[in-house]
């Protein structure tokens, strides 16, 4: 049996949830642009795909950092800030705001 299996499994599930979030960001952004028929610049598609890639990269970094913390022998300090979580949440919030702005301005 893997040591700290439950913690590792929870870490993997969270990583997969962030991957689903990245896929949803890219999918909703590209689909909204195509379904509305609005003339969108090519950079907007690249930006959506790039944003999804950034979410995947940050989620991977988060998973690796937490894996190291789970495997650490010493007790963990619960008062510290987990910066990848903050960056991921800020990125998803910013992308959500951008999608709302896009939907409100498409006629």
Radius of gyration: 17 Å
Overall outline: elongated
Unreliable spans are: none
- Give the tally of β-strands: 0
Arithmetic mean of pLDDT? 79
Structural category: mainly alpha
Question: Briefly, what is this?
Answer:
Residues 6-64 form the DUF202 domain. By secondary structure, the chain is an all-alpha fold. 79% of the residues lie in helices and 0% in strands.
Structural summary, described in words:
It is found in: Endomembrane system. It comes from Thioclava atlantica. Keywords: Membrane, Transmembrane, Transmembrane helix. The structure is a single chain. This protein is mainly α. It has three helices and no strands. Helix 1 runs antiparallel to helix 2.
Topology of helices and strands:
Layout: H1 5-36, H2 42-71, H3 83-105
Helix pairs in contact: 1-2, 1-3, 2-3
Which key phrases capture this entry?
107 residues; mainly alpha; 2 domains; 3 helices; 79% helix; elongated
């Amino acid at each position: 049996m893997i040591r700290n299996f439950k913690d590792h499994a929870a870490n993997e599930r969270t990583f997969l949830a962030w991957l689903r979030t990245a896929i949803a960001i890219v999918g909703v952004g590209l689909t909204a642009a195509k379904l509305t028929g609005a003339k969108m610049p090519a950079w907007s598609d690249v930006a959506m795909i790039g944003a999804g890639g950034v979410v995947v990269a940050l989620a991977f970094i988060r998973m690796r950092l937490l894996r190291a913390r789970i495997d650490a022998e010493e007790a963990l300090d619960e008062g510290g800030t987990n910066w990848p979580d903050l960056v991921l949440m800020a990125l998803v919030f910013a992308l959500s705001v951008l999608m709302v702005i896009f939907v409100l301005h498409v006629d």
